[in-house]
């Protein structure tokens, strides 16, 4: 047992205060994710099922995705390449990623706002990636850190203002390219 470390955690309720700080931070981050998601759903209502009630996930891990929080919104568009197509899902996230995972140098974590379309085909992703690269977008493209899809569209952030601006930019990008994924029902 590391008695000094344990004692410091017990002094003046440091451990409990740390937990409260984490809970407050995660609550604020969730509010911002849901605000951004609700705005995307409102602005693109014809692309979503219902009112866009999100499913919420947060995780801390020991992989190259150090931690993430995300909201998923079920879209009215479906897979274009399946006999029994599933609905596409907008996955709007906030992630701390090892920079090397995105082919970048650096120490510490890369903090990003991001989105990806679950159930989108590789071909659709490649078309959107090419259109993004050919356009005048400040949206970055990297391999999906979980390896499930060909790409993640993201904006690096460092401040609370960056977070809001990042989601606003991703919202505009989504509006431009969302119909390139799947087919309408």
What does this structure look like?
It contains four helices and six strands. It is α+β, with helices and mostly antiparallel strands. The protein has a six-stranded antiparallel sheet with strand order 1-2-3-4-6-5, with helices on one face. α2 packs parallel to α4. The chain has one domain. The chain is 37% helix and 26% strand.
Key terms for this structure?
185 residues, alpha+beta
What's the short version?
Helix content is 37%, strand content 26%.
Mean of all residue-level pLDDT scores: 88
Amino-to-carboxy terminus distance: 60 Å
Radius of gyration, rounded? 18 Å
Shape: globular
In terms of DSSP E residues, the strand content is: 25-35%
Order of helices and strands, N to C? Answer: HHEEEEHEEH
**Which stretches of 5+ consecutive residues score pLDDT under 50?**
none
Helicity level: 25-40%
Strand and helix map with partners:
Blueprint: H1 3-10, H2 14-43, E1 55-60, E2 65-78, E3 87-97, E4 110-118, H3 122-134, E5 140-142, E6 152-156, H4 160-177
Antiparallel strand pairs: 1-2, 2-3, 3-4, 4-6, 5-6
Helix pairs in contact: 2-4
């Amino acid at each position: 047992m590391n008695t000094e470390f344990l004692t410091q955690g017990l002094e003046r309720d440091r451990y409990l205060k740390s937990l409260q700080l984490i809970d407050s931070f995660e609550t604020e981050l969730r509010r911002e994710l849901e605000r951004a998601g609700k705005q995307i759903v409102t602005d693109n209502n014809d692309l979503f099922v219902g009112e866009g009630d999100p499913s919420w996930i947060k995780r801390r891990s020991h992989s190259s995705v150090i931690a993430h929080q995300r909201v998923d919104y079920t879209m009215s568009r479906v897979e274009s390449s399946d006999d029994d197509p599933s609905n596409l899902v907008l996955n709007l996230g906030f992630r701390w990623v090892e920079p090397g995972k995105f082919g970048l140098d650096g120490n510490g974590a890369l903090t990003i706002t991001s989105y990806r379309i679950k159930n989108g085909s590789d071909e659709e992703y490649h078309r959107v990636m090419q259109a993004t690269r050919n356009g005048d977008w400040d949206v970055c493209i990297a391999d999906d850190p979980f390896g499930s899809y060909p790409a993640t569209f993201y904006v690096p952030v460092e401040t609370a203002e960056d977070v809001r601006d990042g989601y606003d930019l991703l919202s505009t990008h989504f509006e431009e390219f969302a119909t390139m994924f799947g087919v309408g029902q």
